[in-house]
Amino acid sequence: MFGRIFHMLLKEFLEVKRDKWERFRLLVPPLIQKVLFGYAATFEVYHVSTAVLDLDHSQESREMVSRFTGNGRFDVEALPSSSQAMRGLIDRSKITVGIRINPQFGELLRKGQTAPLQVIVDGTNSNTALLALDYVGQIAARFSSDYQRDYMNRIFPEYQVMLPSAKMEERPWYNPDLDSQWFFVPGLVGSIALMTIVNVTSFAIVREREIGTLEQIMVTPIRPIEFILGKTVPFFVLGLIEVALVAVAGALWFGVPFRGNPLVMLLGTSLFLISSLAVGLLISTTCRTQQQAFASGFFYLTPAFTLSGFAFPISSMPTVMQWITYLDPLRYYLVVLRGTFLKGTGLAILWPQMVAMAILGVAMFAVSVARFEKSLD
Amino acid sequence: MPNDGNISVRVDGLVKRFGSFTAVDRVSFSAYRGEILGFLGPNGAGKSTVIRILCGLLRPSEGSVIVAGVDVGKDPEGVRHHIGYMSQKFSLYNDLEVSENLRFFAGLYGVDRGIAGDRIREAISLAGLQGHEHDLTGTLAGGWKQRLALGCALLHRPEILFLDEPTSGVDPMSRRQFWDLIHGMSGRGVTVFVSTHYMDEAEYCDRLVLMNRGRVVAMGTPPELRHLVKKGALLLAKCEPLGTALQILQGSPGVAEAAVFGNSLHVRVEQAEDALVTLPAMLESRGVKCVSLKPIEASLEDVFVQLAGEQSAVRGGPDR
After folding, report:
1. For the domain bounded by A48-155, which CATH number is listed?
2. Which of B79, B108, B112, B154 to mutate to test the interface with A (most CBs of A within 10 A)?
3. Cβ of A219 and B91 within 8 Å?
4. Which residues in B lie closer than 8 A to residue A220 (C-beta atoms)?
5. What ipTM goes with this model?
6. What are the DSSP calls for A243-301, one per residue?
């Protein structure tokens, strides 16, 4: 048995050694993806293009507008002269946020009344819209409280006015600057490993089927499990190398801390790779050509990302969807990655994730091996 | 189980279905030790399917298949030490060197380390690839590739060799050399199964199994099969225009069958003496020039055309 697996491994090694393009394909795209995603994948909203329609031209309205121009979140790019002009700007996607200050804005404030500040937002991208509105709200609230304080001091200068208020003191743990790269970079390690390993594994076996070498191998006394091990062990090793590479690159390039125990991450990675290899193997049992394998990969990869919590919080999903996420190995791996990177948690906390990945991995691998044996028929 | 030591393969009532399609339909035959058994038939006749079942690559739907004393249906892996297989498509690794391919397959066959080196050298000399051990396999020409694949299939000294259309796409010279090798194998007691659709190659086989649409149409030595058409006689007709002549002959009394072979017609008639007189006259009267008409010996292709035609007639036409 080990003799035959050894010969399989030797053959795989020779093939990779011969194939420069394959080596390139295995190592360079993941790093490029890492850097691209690391920069591009962010929830934060900066430089929102903004138009301001100031119909009041009072000192108060100018003060309000200056608060938008001064904080980096908003770029005031247009000063339309009418509501129609502002609508046109939104329709043509020139601006995302339109702020309209009505006449009497300053007058109402001076009378001690509530002055409306109308905000129009392009809701096409609901995430950006939501965050932008949130920032507008913060600016308006700060403006109000500053104005109130100033107002009271002017009316009752004899008193040192005390305005009671509660103030939030933020203490974000593990990611003190709430840098969304810290959230994405560890997750990317898992996503990139999943994508590469599923594709590479399914391609490698389907290619042998395509060129006929699989059939030639299957008439030798080799057992299917020996073939499968010979075929997957190299990709397991490759997966470990790739995760290490992408993780180190992510930590150094993006300055994300790694606070945990590398051995815990190694264990989690190993368990996760087993399930990814199983998916690749499963795809290879149903596909005759590499194109089919590529297309089938999408069927797994897209839901695996969506349901993993890579970008969308699982707790916000409908209950049924949340159940499905329990079947997604990436879900557990992301917890391990974020835990080891940012929180420095160890096995004492991460063991349920490890057990879940082990169960899923072994079950998926067993199904794939059984299917592989049948698919030769 | 066959106790007869001379039988190396026995197939009985073999059926293989893919969904609702029956690829192999109640096929039975035996092969004897050292025999070259040819499978003849058009594409889709079921030749490859039978061979792949015998190798344990496909499971039979029905029937029993005993290869080298092993029931392949029950123990597909048990048979693999005994057999060598060369598929239709060249299936060694193009990106490995010649010697790396051989070492890989020797390893998979579990050839003992001590003798693997000798076996690999033998395979290389069989393929005539001395001095090319370190060439990339993909750079070899077709004939060399075929012979290398054969050498590879023989590394573990199988008792039975399955060759699925081994010479397709190989030049005539290489085909000759290949058949010399096959005869050499059979001389050493290896049973050889060859599928082909080259009728001329069929003549090199000891025995033939003629297949059409999943069924065995006929079986026997090449002379035996040729004898089957001796009911009636076969005439070679050279006519102009050929198409018109074919149309006229196909409906004529006394003509059992007419088919185009190259630039002439093969016409099977009930009575050669009469036909030699009546047919030219009839053709001339319909404006067809009959250049020559003479009796010939049936080729295997004629046998095949006749038998396949009879099979279609029995089944009610060429549809299925």
Report:
1. 3.40.1710.10
2. B108
3. no
4. 80, 105, 108-109
5. 0.77
6. HHHHHHHHHHHH-----S-HHHHHHHHHHHHHHHHHHHHHHHHH-SSHHHHHHHHHHHH
